[in-house]
Design a protein that fits this description.
With about 170 residues, this protein is mainly alpha-helical. It has 11 helices and 2 strands, in the order ββααααααααααα. Strands 1-2 form a two-stranded antiparallel sheet.
Length: about 170
């Protein structure tokens, strides 16, 4: 329990992680010992934004949400341009938005292809590196608490752990 992980004790990491230490602590040890950043996290593959929200990694949650929102624009425009759908939304803001794009242009096709590729890149990166990101997040948060001389067991547990409320809010947001 007193083994050091980048200046943080294993017991402090366990307090920060809260539930699911049986998964994360061996993963953190592997990351520390091998210096390999790639490990599979199935939750982050399936729903990266929700994973980051649940694990209180709010900056990554927002970045992932915004990036996924941005790359969803081309398929959304194609859907809005569908004649069956566009008849229902005629003379609305969405119709005017869709009309701003020429979906038959090679430029739009290129942007659509790039957005499709980026969606797979997000799945790969979040699934392959989220355990490492969580490890770095935990170490950095604990070090900040130590530097502020507020690193009690209770404060580490409060800053770490999971947030069911964030998860619920992210599910309800879209």
């Amino acid at each position: 329990p007193e083994e050091e992980y980048d200046g943080v004790k294993l017991s402090e990491l366990a307090d920060f992680v809260g539930n699911n230490t049986y998964y994360y602590l061996p993963m953190f040890k592997r990351v520390k010992d091998t210096k390999h950043k790639m490990t599979l996290n199935f939750s982050a593959v399936i729903a990266p934004t929700l994973y980051f929200a649940y694990r209180k990694m709010y900056l990554l949650m927002v970045l992932c949400f915004l990036l996924k929102l941005l790359i969803s624009i081309p398929p959304f425009v194609v859907m809005l341009s569908n004649p069956e759908f566009s008849a229902e939304i005629a003379n609305t803001f969405l119709a005017k938005f869709a009309n701003c794009f020429n979906i038959k242009s090679s430029y739009f096709e290129l942007v659509s292809n790039i957005s499709a590729i980026l969606s797979y890149v997000i799945i790969f990166v979040t699934g392959a590196f989220s355990n490492w990101m969580y490890y770095k997040h935990a170490v950095n948060k604990i070090k900040k608490l130590k530097n502020a001389e507020k690193a009690t067991k209770e404060t580490i547990k409060a800053k770490g752990g999971v947030s069911q409320l964030s998860l619920i809010l992210m599910i309800a947001a879209p």
